[in-house]
Write a structure and sequence with these properties.
The complex is a heterodimer of chains A (443) and B (126). Chain A has 443 residues and is an alpha+beta fold. Helices cover 29% and strands 14% of the residues of chain A.
């Protein structure tokens, strides 16, 4: 009875909405495109959008399952395009509207709450580190977030101006398709990651593919500066800005979309084996655990030993995965036919053997304080003599307000190197029992 | 940080114990003299043009004083005692190349006097 009741009310509302807006109803465009039937989703909800729109999303968000309104808002009861499109959002993943779209009751409520606190949305570590070293705060964990800057809740400063103009393109609050050039693909809230162009070629049916299988390029779109892990992982080393003539006396033929020249050197072994970012990094690390962390190293929980800690550790992890725990450390462990616990690629479903580290080589008395990376990371991009020039007379686009304002920043470096990563010491903390020898990266 | 350049093949022992760049001293050579080690930098700085006499590739000086800040609390370059300990292994690697070598297997961590004549000849006081 309930669906029938809802349907009846909806039809009444539909008729009422047509009556209360005669000027739209009589418009030429409406007369031409007037739908000739009431379209409904599988649950019986009226969604008149479906009579004009044939875009076909993925199965879970299928047009017949959710319709358009549930994600894109607007007025699903009107057949008049002008009324139907009022309040429509092109990108439901945008964090400004996401509570009413992806994060609405019955959908991804928890994930949306968490993602707003994740470092990809807050950028807390970048902001507080900048301000700490520029002498604007004594608190290296200062809780200043992108959202606060967007709402102008923090007094403007030089470090914040720098952040707004140079760093402000890599956060989830950035609306998609607003910045010029290659930057236009960045941002978009949920869509920044869960977006792929999709396989459908038919223009009328084409809809972005909303996916849990996040392609690596979505991660690398942002994770390619500073530590440059997205590039290094693929064996791409950024060479000098002028394009060192490595190839027969000519410039490198490999260039990133932002113009930086790269060389192909040894990729990470996990990349060679076909693993992508989401195969190791879990939901809790990426989308957050609900807490607002101050720095990246507080949010990351996957360690080399998670997978390479030996059979007993893998058994514990598999039990955790199968225990219905909300956010297990790994959720892609499977038991292979051989009985071994292996890692299953989330996109290609390839099985990867998880070999334990060598007790003999890795746990000998003299080297017990070394992190895995100290020995097993033979190269890292090192940017020496990093400096910036500030010209207060020129203007530059503020990537948060999307307005030009006075103050122009330009970054420089003296030189880049990749060999012999520098080692140093990280004092023991809550996550380790000893001081650790780790890699120090300049730049 | 994790550089995300993981390799099954590890860095060579010498890449840490005999490479001043890896130890944060910068490009150059380590030599043994007067019972200790000295660092000979390969780079120099035109302090007049640069406005500082610090070499860009140096994280720490030979006294173990840090020359850079780090982005994380508790993270620092090696101190003097750590530099001494790591560098003192460097000359041994000429003959005792890896952890399979009996000398390395039974390493006492500098607690016992080193019997090696070669090492003594390197470090003897003239």
């Amino acid at each position: 009875m309930k669906p029938l009741f809802i349907q009846t009310i909806s039809i009444i509302l539909l008729i009422a909405s047509s009556w209360t807006a005669p000027k739209h109803a009589l418009s030429k465009s409406y007369a031409l495109s007037k739908p000739n039937k009431v379209t409904k989703t599988l649950s019986g909800q009226i969604d008149m959008c479906l009579s004009c729109h044939f875009e076909t999303p993925d199965k879970a968000h299928g047009r017949k399952v959710l319709g358009c309104f549930v994600c894109h808002l607007g007025n699903p009861l009107s057949g008049d395009p002008d009324i139907a499109h009022q309040g429509v959002v092109l990108n439901p993943g945008d964090l400004r509207v996401v509570n009413r779209t992806c994060g609405q009751e019955g959908c991804h409520v928890e994930q949306v709450k968490q993602v707003k606190n994740t470092l990809m949305a807050t950028n807390r570590g970048i902001i507080s580190t900048l301000r700490f070293y520029w002498g604007e705060t004594k608190d290296h964990n200062e809780p200043v977030t992108v959202e606060m800057l967007l709402k102008n809740r923090v007094a403007q400063s030089l470090a914040l101006d720098y952040f707004r103009k140079l760093c402000g393109t890599c956060h989830l609050w950035l609306p998609k398709n607003t910045l010029p050039g290659f930057l236009s693909e960045k941002g978009g809230g949920c869509t920044a990651c869960h977006y792929s162009k999709g396989p459908i070629k038919d223009r009328r049916k084409k809809h972005p593919l909303i996916t849990k299988k996040i392609p690596m390029k979505n991660c690398v779109r942002c994770h390619n500066r500073s530590g440059r892990i997205g590039l290094s992982y693929q064996g791409l080393y950024e060479s000098e800005g002028y394009g060192t003539p490595f190839e027969d006396g000519d410039l490198s033929s490999l260039q990133l979309e932002d113009g930086r020249f790269v060389q192909e050197i040894h990729p990470d072994i996990h990349f060679k084996k076909g693993l992508i970012c989401i195969d190791c990094h879990n939901q809790k690390e990426i989308m957050g655990d609900g807490k607002q962390h101050a720095h990246l190293y507080e949010q990351v929980e996957i360690r080399c030993v998670t997978c390479h800690g030996g059979k007993d550790e893998l058994v514990k992890l598999l039990n955790e995965q199968n225990s219905n725990k909300r956010f297990p450390t790994l959720n892609n462990l499977v038991k292979a036919t051989s009985g071994q616990i292996v890692l299953k690629g989330k996109t290609d479903e390839k099985l990867h053997e998880l070999r334990p580290f060598s007790e003999k080589a890795c746990r000998n008395e003299q080297h017990k304080s070394l992190s895995c990376q100290a020995c097993h990371s033979p190269w890292v991009p090192q940017c020496y003599g990093c400096h910036v020039r500030y010209d207060r007379g020129k203007t530059q686009l503020d990537k948060l307000s999307l307005n030009e304002s006075f103050g122009h920043w330009q970054e420089f470096r003296s030189y880049m190197r990749y060999e012999s990563p520098v080692l140093g010491v990280l004092k023991k903390d809550t996550k380790s029992i000893n001081d650790k020898v780790v890699i120090l990266v300049p730049g | 940080m994790d550089p995300h350049t993981t390799s099954k093949q590890t860095r060579d022992c010498k890449d840490c114990h005999a490479n001043p760049k890896s130890l944060g001293l910068g490009y150059g050579n380590i030599a043994f003299d007067n019972g200790g080690w000295i660092f000979q930098p390969a780079t120099s700085v035109n302090s007049k043009a640069f406005g500082s006499n610090k070499r860009l590739d140096a994280f720490v000086n030979t006294e173990g004083h840090p020359l850079v800040h780090t982005g994380r609390k508790g993270l620092r370059p090696f101190n003097k005692e750590e530099l001494n300990r790591i560098i003192s292994v460097g000359p041994c690697l000429v003959c005792h190349r890896d952890m399979e070598d009996p000398v390395m297997k039974n390493w006492q961590g500098g607690k016992s006097p080193l019997p090696c004549k070669y090492f003594r000849s390197l470090t003897r006081t003239p």
